[in-house]
Amino acid sequence: MTNAVEAQCPRSICEEDRARAQMYQLLGVLLGNPPSSELLRGLTSLQGDNTPIGSASKNLAALAERTSPVDAEREYNNLFVGLGRGELLPYASYYLTGFLNERPLADLRTDLMYRGIKANDDVKEPEDHIGTLCEIMAGIITGEFVCDSDLPSQKAFFDAHLAKWAELFFTDLEKAQAAVFYAPVGSLGRAFMAVEADAFAIQ
Length: 203
What we know:
The chain is an all-alpha fold and 203 residues long. It has ten helices and no strands. It has helices spanning 15-32, 37-43, 52-65, 69-80, 92-97, 103-115, 130-142, 151-161, 166-175, 182-201.
């Protein structure tokens, strides 16, 4: 998916929605590939407060400052790639059924087709990868896609494809044996998904 946050948003959105889209985009980038040296440098400037999201942001900034791209790539591979498979399988189908390429992926592909959303040709992962889903949410919020980008549309996608498993995945990432740099990524994702779920619940 294209980077909807760095590009100019196709529609005017409030600062809260822009921040939400940026968070989804950040999680999508971190989970889609090992972080580049440029991204690691950028993460060192993250600010935080005493909220769960703020605390995770501060921890991520501190770890980014002392993590090399080589170490980050090794950790990413141990977590998500491995020899045969990594420590975690970041797919909706696996978390919801115990198997890859199952009904959740088929349902997602139907939804994406209905919304007019197409994956980039160079994306090799199944579309129910957590990184891809986060990038899609960012794009829906910013109006990158032809589908409706209002709150009901965002809520429908979140409820269908993230609400039932994403928080659990991020909890697993937070506690994973191979996670050092990625432990606060797990904390950040878990806290953010909880905030999103609570916000959508009152819509």
